[in-house]
Write a structure and sequence with these properties.
Elements lengths: L1 H12 L8 H14 L2 E12 L9 H10 L2 E10 L4 E9 L5 E9 L2 E8 L7 E6 L17 H7 L8 E8 L2 E9 L11 E7 L5 E9 L3 E15 L5 E12 L1 E3 L2 E2 L5 E7 L5 E2 L22 H12 L8 H26 L5 H29 L1
Antiparallel strand pairs: 1-2, 1-15, 1-16, 2-3, 3-4, 4-5, 5-6, 7-8, 8-9, 9-10, 10-11, 11-12, 12-15, 13-14
Helix pairs in contact: 6-7
């Protein structure tokens, strides 16, 4: 890695040179991967809606809409040099009662996802399929500032229309600017692409990233990426991105804005960073019964509190169905008896009769539903 950095530093100061070839750029990425064999950390962020106006809404209504859609997230991220990856995070939308827990794992050639909802309406949702990277671009993971996963998956930059765009200063650091098509597709001027400003002297991490869609317009920008020097064993060190800001300019398919629509500020919690400590396979495996993996921070407490307040889902095994049916019929009998007693002296049949019809109808429907469940379970 040191030799590559030295060569690039010389190229950066020599006007008229041929630039950085795809092979040299690939060595930069491999150098970054060789320094960090595995890493894990906790991270958190705020995802804020910046939409300037919505037709038909007043300024006050728009502000309430922004508050309602404001999101906070906290999670635990793990990555290993063989491409294994896992992220678990809590996502809070609006107030503290609306929190979900997400788990994604890329391990053994498969992507597994698991979603838990505190009010138990939607979770757990479990998905298991062949390796795909769609979730890797999630707004609530650290992938907007940490690109080790991207370096591992990139392969040959030359096959993705790699271009050296020269050297530019970013936040006081001399960076190599490159352009690479998004995804492995035939080179074309109409492909969506990403520009990276690479700090070749500090681990090969980007300090700025801009994503473009076609026809050419800016879809997203990541900037103010801060790198932290991590001391390793044997007197060595590595660099790791620990904070960044992302602005999104896309409002829909083929629609974009000149001003940011979403504004995301995220950071790594420095005291949780672990590098090259050997993450076992068990840390990447994901099963439907696994408990939440994140640390006990604010959002987890909100999730646990909301989960404790929500009623448990009704069980559908035969014994539970029979017990629930008995309890509800007994309750219906008690309520019917109370109505009979209170209305017998009034000579009015309508309220009593309608109530009894309601109870009998509910009981009949309950018996029918229970019978279907019992039959289905045999």
């Amino acid at each position: 890695m040191y030799a590559t950095v030295l060569v690039l530093s010389v190229l950066a100061t020599q006007p008229g040179t041929a630039g950085v070839s795809p092979e040299q750029f690939s060595r930069i990425l491999q150098g970054a991967l060789s320094e960090i064999r595995d890493v894990s950390f906790m991270y958190e962020g705020i995802y804020r809606l910046e939409i300037p106006n919505i037709p038909g809404k007043t300024d006050a209504e728009l502000e309430q809409y922004r508050i309602k859609n404001r999101r906070q997230y906290q999670g635990l991220y793990s990555w290993r040099g063989d491409g294994s990856e896992r992220v678990d995070y809590y996502l809070q939308t609006g107030g503290p009662d609306n929190v979900r827990y997400y788990s994604f794992s890329l391990f053994g050639g498969k992507t597994i996802s698991l979603i838990r909802d505190a009010d138990r309406r939607f979770g757990p949702v479990y998905d298991d399929h062949e390796k795909q990277n769609t979730w890797l671009l999630s707004d609530f993971t650290p992938h907007n500032m940490n690109y080790l996963w991207y370096y591992k998956d990139l392969g040959d930059p030359g096959a993705q229309n790699y271009r050296d765009l020269g050297w530019e200063d970013v936040d006081g650091h001399h960076c190599l600017k490159v352009r690479i098509d998004n995804g492995k597709m035939a080179p074309s001027e109409k492909n969506p692409y990403t520009c990276f400003w690479i700090d070749t002297e500090r681990g090969g991490h980007p300090l700025r990233v801009e994503k473009f869609y076609w026809p050419p317009f800016l879809a997203g920008r990541v900037y103010s990426i801060e790198l932290k020097k991590i001391d390793l064993r044997g007197g060595k060190h590595a660099w790791l991105p620990i904070s960044g800001i992302e602005d999104t300019f896309v409002t829909g398919i083929q629609e974009h804005s000149q001003e940011p629509v979403y504004h995301v500020v995220s950071r790594v919690l420095p005291d949780t960073i672990r590098v090259n400590e050997g993450i076992p396979d068990s840390a990447f495996a994901l099963r439907i019964g696994d408990p939440p993996r994140s640390d006990d921070r604010v959002l987890r407490r909100n999730f646990d509190a909301a989960y404790a307040k929500s009623p448990p889902p009704e069980r559908t095994d035969p014994k539970s169905v029979e017990e629930r049916l008995t309890r509800r019929l007994e309750e219906a009998d008690r309520q019917s008896a109370m109505i009979d007693a209170s209305s017998s002296s009034q000579g009015s049949w309508s309220a009593t009769l309608l109530a009894q019809i309601g109870f009998f109808s509910a009981g009949a429907a309950l018996i029918t539903w229970a019978t279907m469940i019992l039959r289905r379970s045999r």
